[in-house]
């Protein structure tokens, strides 16, 4: 097993759609796992239609989170389709699903049923509000969980309304939590096997609301400690000052901050205002936070006197938190991202859409990122391949299943 494909040999049965689950399974595929994406006939994952923009018949949204997978199109609402899923699950290490809790149990596809046939199966359920409790039947959507979990309430300008984040942070974070739990379960199973014990699987419950509350982190902890409702700070920070965006003379914005008292001294010198570092009002972060209404206008006046490029040059080489507020185009064209040697942007050849580029794996193993070995699949592209390879379905059986509209 190569270092940059540490999950080679692991097979994942992916029954998820939309974002949290597919994002999780894509990263498993990036790490070398064989991911089999099961989709419904007649449309598949609904994000295939979440556009524009589209690339051939599928949305770019879908393409962005479904590389390194094989697509099997089958209807497991039918008994024969449910039986195919059961048979496939026996050949897999991990199963991912994001159906409303209880729905798969009606088809005999719940953890208890499938683990009875495959005790080593790691079964990960992703939902909106968990597998138990009064809200378990609610559909899970990122913006709803972000609203209920308090994230929207602290996001936006102080005098403005709540603002949704530009990407589905709660969905993506839930996918990452699910990923880490799956990897931990695989490690536990492998450790048991190495000790000569039975490597058992487990049932992982990952949900949007739990993720949102957990990732409220210090903000929630501060409320629990003080009882004071957190404010919205725009680009600012409740616990640090300065630490926010400032306008430059050419109407660009510059993120600028100081994480400690030493950095504040460096910042003042780089701004050409060393006297601010010795001002009694600003000698410590505690004082700067208490006196932010005096400090922030002083720094804003300094920053507004020069264009963005001048400030970037003046701050170069410092260890301060700083940078331009980029557009997406500028972010993707920035040297660390656009450099082909970085491998952060990956391009693959899609059979219908041609060359497709998207952000690639975020981490490296021994200096190498995971590989894109498969482009995002067309709907049902690998149905016959997977069923033949894993279930020994011959031509006659596949034809019969197709006649019955069980597979497509």
Automatic annotation (TrEMBL):
GO terms for molecular function: succinate-hydroxymethylglutarate CoA-transferase activity. It holds the Pfam family CoA_transf_3. It comes from the Eukaryota. SUPFAM superfamilies: CoA-transferase family III (CaiB/BaiF). One of its GO terms (cellular component) is mitochondrion. Keywords: Transferase. Residues 357-381 are annotated as: Disordered. InterPro entries: CoA-transferase_III_domain, CoA-Trfase_fam_III, CoA-Trfase_III_dom3_sf, CoA-Trfase_III_dom_1_sf. Belongs to the CoA-transferase III family. This is CoA transferase. The lineage of its organism: Eukaryota, Metazoa, Spiralia, Lophotrochozoa, Platyhelminthes.
